[in-house]
Each structure stands twice: as structure tokens, then as C-alpha cells.
Amino acid sequence: MSESIIPESELEEVELYHPKSWWTEKVFSQDAKLIAIQYGLTAFAIGFVALVLSWFMRIQIAFPEMAIISEGTYYQFITMHGMIMVVYLLTALFLGAFGNYLIPLMVGARDMVFPYLNMVSYWTYLVAVLVLFVSFFTPGGPTGAGWTLYPPQAILGGTPGQETGIVLMLVSLCIFIVGFTMGGLNYVITVLQARTRGMTLMRMPLTVWGIFTATVLALFAFPALFVSAVMMLFDKLLMTSFFMPALVEFGENLSYGGGSPILFQHLFWFFGHPEVYIVALPAFGIVSDLISIHARKNIFGFRMMVWAIVGIGALSFIVWAHHMYVSGMNPYFGFFFATTTLIIAVPTALKVYNWILTLWKGNIHLTIPMLFCLGFIVTFLNGGLTGLFLGNVIVDVPLSDTYFVVAHFHMVMGIAPVLVILGAIYHWYPLITGKMLHDGMGRFHFWITFVGSYLIYFPMHYLGFIGVPRRYYEMGQTEALYTSSAADLNVFITIAALAVGFAQLVFIYNVFWSAKNGKVAEKNPWKSTSLEWQTPEQPPIHGNFGKELPVVYRWAYDYSVPGAEDDFIPQDVPNEKVKLAEGYTELGVEKT
Amino acid sequence: MSATSKVPLKDGMEGFVSDWASDQRAFKGVPWGKAMMWIFLLSDTFIFSIFLISYMTARWSTVEPWPNTSEVFALTVNGVSVPLLLIAIMTFILITSSGTMAMAVRSGYQKKRKQAAALLYLTAILGLSFVGMQAFEWSKLIEEGIRPWENPFGARQFGSIFFMVTGFHGFHVSVGVIFLFITARKVLRGDYDTGRRGFFTWQKGRYEIIETMGLYWHFVDLVWVFIFAFFYLW
Q1: Cβ B50–A113 below 8 Å, yes or no?
Q2: Which of A220, A295, A519, B137 fits a 20 to 30 Å CA distance from A135?
Q3: CA distances in angstroms from A302 to A11, A52, A354, A360, A380, listed in the order given
């Protein structure tokens, strides 16, 4: 057997910042791992607020006679729920938390390349979250413009929160984008310029590929949101007319005139559609790794998976107007965007096939992370198929603004990524805390969450088919559109939603309970090959690896290699050090 | 982090492929700060492009006539109205500052400490004078009654977009000037020779930082060329 080649080191050993006080060690930390936990806890805290808002909304829809919240409050809750979940929870969690924790460890770096900037990124994010949260307590409350914030209504009278809520929302988004850019530059440069010896791009685990590509998308998509937020702020505060046409409000001519509301929609969705993939691509990456690890089999079609991620990322920039089929834009636009939308389904379907082919004849361990992955495949497939309905103009027009749309995007970018996040937390919790999460509570959590969210969103497709419109505070006495059976279905959905909400409380309890009382995790409990589990200490300490950075000899998917005694070969083990199974002279070569 | 690569680099397409297929770094010999600045500038390019696209859309969608730019931006000298005089001077100054910046990068790599510092100070002062003239232009337009929300010469979007985009660009220049002064002071003090650590980041600086600074500065100049073409010549 030939000696493994160890490439020469091109990078000088980095000088780590060593904190000198409790404050710089535990609070204003420059260690990516602690920043990741700060990001994660903040995102979960604000995400929990959004979850509670959804309970109020569901109770209102199911029992309108209770009038648990007012009409204005309902719109405010819809808006805040959507914006918090998409931007402040999912984006921050996948990129800020998982990105910070996993990228340096998985590519074999001591830390992010700009630790100070990384720290500032988190604190800027925290300010953005606080500014958004403060709007609940301002006169008029948070904005009720819908998470898409379409002008002109977003800043006009009659929309709840038009006094200060909308201003705080826009300011908060701008701050978030500034903070994200600082973090995002870190993730991109760490992947491109700070990998360890032997770690080529094609040896990186798909988790890193997903987060990396999503970060690149975010760096190019958030500018559109930033610019439109700035312009809308000016429309609101300086009475400019970027998005505001001439308007009559309550019989009075407003001083606006000549602006284009459609321009905002184009800018918003130029951000908004890549945003879907900013959330989806890290989920794709993580789920690929989890499936491979827990099925003890290499990922099927690794290169195809990488190129699919890159391809989806590129295509996501030319599909945005499929959100605008009913906006009155030129029908030829619809033709173009329907075509690109259907093309993007090709690499996406390819990924789903590859996940299933990875499971095929695998040694599947039904651990909790694996359960969540299986749940993800099913919900994602479901949400992806309804995406094909909505991507076609003719089918979209009658379904637009019904519960079918709500069902579609909650399946595809609500439940599916959240299942991956939960699975990923069960998977990496032992690495982060050194303890295992409680198994019984975990299984309870999975089954209630998975089955429950199906019970919530699957019936919504039917509601959409019969034409029940979304965003309505109550349906009133419209037997033609809102039959009594639809009303009963809404009661059913609400009960399921509250049950799923309860299961999340069990999960939160489990996270805190296990941190103290959990079973101590053995080293590398899932027998994973990637570098984050090969650190000398578990959990990894400041600087991640020991004196020497690891050298990488193989890809991250050497599971059940014929000839090896263990069913996994870590990335930093050279061929000559692999323990051979009996009856083999070499990996893959049997004694004759 | 080091600027030099120990691995021999190949040319052309073959080099591109071998760099991206290699371990450790995709951009061989490129320091982290410089790579970061390139990615940041790509992101910033999106911001300015979207500003300019919005400007074009507004100009097409508004129903009122767009003001005649050669009249609005004219300066009266000795009773003669000269179109685009101030802008010509501003553009000349900014482009010149790009030249002095490029020279500063060269001096930096040659480790000519004082020369590099002097050129950086010169660049900063040129940038500062650009911002000063922009302030003068703004006050002249405001005196004539142009506001973000109204414009006596035609479409109100003219005022809105003009102040927003030149303001955003002016903000970029101002930030650049501040960092140029900081970098110049550090170079003059010899921080990049002695390895003195940054106050906030605790990292040692290197002369390569001047080049990173230069990338930003040239980008701001390039954006100005587009703003000049789209706002003043169209």
C-alpha cells in the first residue's frame, strides 16, 4: 500500500486571542463555539415568542366567537410570527449558530478567520432582535403589514403599528443585515481560505457545503432587502415616494405620488426567494450528513449532491417573480419564472432521490436524529410537490392567497427545516455539552412533533382547495366559502397545533435537564467520521484541536468500508493506520 | 495568512482548477483580509446595483418630467452657467485619489514607511475634499428648494433618489476617509514593522492591510463613475 501523501502546510499557525477576564471569556467571547451558542439561545428565545403568537392566532381561527385577540392584534401577530420565524430564527440559527459551531471544527480550523468581527456580528444581531421586540411595547404596537411588508398599506393609516411598529421593523432588519454580513464574511472566508491540510473543497462534509452556499446566497440577497427597507423608511419618515403612488386616504389626497409599489415586490422577492434556500440549503447539508452517519453508509452521489446545492443556489436568484403571479405584472414574465421554477425542481428532486438511495440497504439505526431525518424527507417531499402546483401560473392563480399556500410554505420551509434543526440538536448536543439528551423525552418529542405537524398542515391543503382565504381574522357567515366542515377542520388543526406546541416545551425542558442530569456522552457517540468529533477533548476547547491541526486523508463518508474492522474511518486516519478486518490484506482486498 | 505561497502556481484554466481542487486555500497567496474585502465588495456591488436599478425604475414610472440635469447641476461662474463644473472637479479629485492610493500600496510593499504614510494622508485629504464639495453641492440644491419629498424642477423622485444614493456613496467615502487616517497613522507609527497589536482586534497588522484598504477605495471610486454617468449625464 502506498504511503498517504501529506500536503505541506501553506498557512501559518494562527495566534488565538486568549481572554483575560470573565467578561471576555464568557460574555464578549471571540470563540466561535460560544458565539454559536449565544446565537442559538437568542434565536430560540425570540422564536419561542413567535411560537406563542401562533397559538393565539390558531385559537382565534378555531374559536372566533371567543375573540381572544382583536383584528389588529391578529395582523400584528401574523406579521411578527412570519418575520421572526424566517429571518430571526431560521436564518440566524442555521448560519449564526450551526455555521459558527460547525464550520471551523469541520474544516479543521482553530476558529473563524476574524474572531473579533464574529463577536460583533452576534451583538449586532442581539440589538436587531431587541429593536424588533421593543416594538411590542410601543404605542400602536408592532407592525401588522404582513411579513412581506407590501407598500403602500404597510405605512398607511389603518394598518396596525403604522405609528412606530413599521419603523422599528425596518430598522431592525437593516441592523440584522449589517450584523449578518459581518458573520457571513467570516463563514465564507473560513471555508475558502482556512481549511486544514488535506481538506479539499470536495472532502468537506455536505453540512459545510450547505451552510457555505447559503451564506453566499445571503450575502448577495440581503442587499435587496436592505435597500428596500431603507427606501421604505424614507417613504415613511421623509415622505419620499419610492413605492408610493398618488393616493386618497379617508377622502384626503396624500402628498405621495409617482412611486411604484411593484418595485418593492420585485426587490423584496429578489431577497425573499433566495431566503427560502438560505434556510433550505443548510438543512439539505445537515440532513445528508445525519442520514449517512445513522445509516452507516456513504452518501449516495456525493459530487452530485454538491453540484445540486450549488445549482439550486444559482437558480434561486432567477425565480423570484413566481411569488408575484397575481401582482399584475406582464404575463410573459410569468411564463419565464414558471419555467425557471420548474427547472429548480430538478436538482432538488435529485437530492431527495439521493437521500433515499443512501438509506437503501443501509444499516439504519433508528436513533432520534435519524427519525427526524426521515420526518424531514417526507415533509420536504410533500412541500416540494405542492411547490410544483404553485409554480405553475394557471394553477397558482386560484390557489393564491388561500390556505394551500400556507400549507405549502409551512411544510417546505417551516416544518422541514425545523425537523432538521431538532435532529441536528439531538445529534450534536453530546459534542456541545458532553451529555446525551434524554432518549424517552426525545422520542416523545419527535412523534408528537412529526405526526402533529402533519395533522396541522395536511388538512390546510383541503381548506385551500375549497377557497378558504389566508390572513382572515374570522370567516363570518359565508357558508359558500367557509362551510361548517371547514370550521370543524380548523378546530381540529388548532388542537393539533397546541399539542405540537406542548411537545416543544418538553424539548426545551429536556435540553436544560440533560445539560445537568443527562448521561455522560462517550467519545464520538455516533461513530462519526467528520473532524468535529476527532478533537482531543469533548466538548472541544478554545482552539478546537490539540497542538497540531489534524491532517485529512479522506472524505467524510467512509462508513462500512469493506476490509476495515470498524464500520467508520475518521477523516484524519491514513490508510496505513486503518485496522483491517480478519481475512483482508488491504482495504477492499480479501485474502485469496 | 502569509502573502507568499510555497506551492508553485499554474497558469490559466489549469491553475484555476488546481487551486479550487486543492486543500487549505482556494485563493493561493491571498491573505484573509484581502479575500474578505473582495467578497464584501461583491455584496456591496449588489447594494449599489439595486439602488441604481431602483433609480431607473423610478425615473420610468414617475409621471412628472425629470429635471434637466445640465441645468440643475450647473454652477454660475462670472455670470456664465457652466454645466457639470463642480462634478467634473469632484470626479477628477476622486480619480486622482485612486492614483495616490495605488502608489501608497506600492510604497507599503516596498516597506517605505514614511512615503506610504504620506500617500495615505494625501488620499484621505483628497477624499475629505470630495466629501466637502458634496456637502457644498447638497446645500446648493437644498437652497434651490430641492428636498427628498419635493422638487420645484419636476419629478419629486429626483430629489429623493439623488440625496439617497449620493448620500449612501458619500457615507462610503467618509468611512473610507476615517479608515485611511487610521491606517496612515498606524503606518507612520511603524505598527506594521513592530507588530503592535490592534486596539480592538488584538491582531498584528501587516503592510498588506494597505492593499485591502486600497481595494475598498478603488471600489468607491468605481461606484462614483457609475453614479456620475447615471445621475449627471443621463
Answers
A1: no
A2: A220
A3: 28, 40, 9, 15, 20
